[in-house]
Amino acid sequence: MSDLKPIQFLGTSLDDLRSFPVSARREAGYQLDQVQHGHEPDDWKPMVTVGQSVREIRIRDASGGFRIIYVAKFANAIYVLHCFQKKTQKTSISDLSIAKKRYRDLIQEHS
Question: How many domains does the chain have?
Answer without folding.
Answer: 1
